[in-house]
TrEMBL record:
Family: Belongs to the CheD family.
CDD domains hit by this protein: CheD (cd16352)
Annotated TM spans: none
Organism annotation: Halioxenophilus aromaticivorans
Function: Probably deamidates glutamine residues to glutamate on methyl-accepting chemotaxis receptors (MCPs), playing an important role in chemotaxis.
Reactions performed catalytically: L-glutaminyl-[protein] + H2O = L-glutamyl-[protein] + NH4(+)
Gene Ontology MF terms in the entry: protein-glutamine glutaminase activity
Enzyme class: hydrolase
Protein name per the record: Probable chemoreceptor glutamine deamidase CheD
Length: 190
């Protein structure tokens, strides 16, 4: 990996859209990072969201995936829907269309065992990592965005680095639980 001119570190609830010469870093457990990259202009962005959606009570704990709507409230990148709205805003500012970008999805790790209770609905029973993964795929698919790579799920966490110059994403996965000694690195390039 070539040295970057600029390094950005994203924490949960943060968003970045920038140009070539930047490496964007983050660490993911159940959170999701989506990278969007424009192969011709060498621009792109990454988000790091913690929850799939806001609810009417503002807790961010919902029962399903909503749709993107024009909302008067301030966008909050802790939520998947708001991250997609931020991407759409950045894409429009660069006079491009979101379908021109290549998307990659990372994270959504299961940090705890599922609760097998039969008293709650299926979506309520899903771990937050699975809800986040579902939100990312659903929202990007609704916008007809090409999803080139997905490295999601499993029990563990990921450290990722997005190179905006090339669109490459490096992933270092660290499992937790049985067999936790296994570490894998891979390029998010297909």
């Amino acid at each position: 990996m070539k040295q970057a001119e600029r390094k950005v570190v994203l924490h949960a609830g943060e968003y970045c859209f920038t140009s070539a010469g930047t490496h964007v870093h983050t660490l993911l457990g159940s959170c999701i990072s989506i990278t969007l990259w424009h192969p011709e202009l060498k621009i792109g962005g990454m988000c790091h969201f913690a929850l799939p959606e806001r609810t009417s009570n503002g807790t961010g704990i919902g029962n399903g995936i909503g749709t993107i709507a024009a909302q008067p409230r301030k966008l909050d990148p802790r939520y998947a829907e708001d991250c997609i709205a931020l991407f759409l805003r950045s894409v429009r500012r660069n006079n491009t269309d979101i379908t021109e970008y290549e998307a990659k999805i990372f994270g959504g790790g299961n940090m705890y065992e599922k609760y097998p209770s039969v008293d709650i609905g299926m979506v309520e029973r899903l771990p937050v990592g699975e809800k986040n993964t579902l939100a990312a795929f659903t929202l990007l698919t609704e916008l007809s965005v090409d999803i080139a790579v997905a490295h999601v799920g499993e029990f563990g966490y990921r450290r990722i680095i997005f190179d905006v110059a090339t669109g490459d994403v490096w992933v270092k996965f660290k499992p937790i639980g049985p067999g936790a000694g296994d570490q894998r690195s891979l390029s998010g390039r297909s």
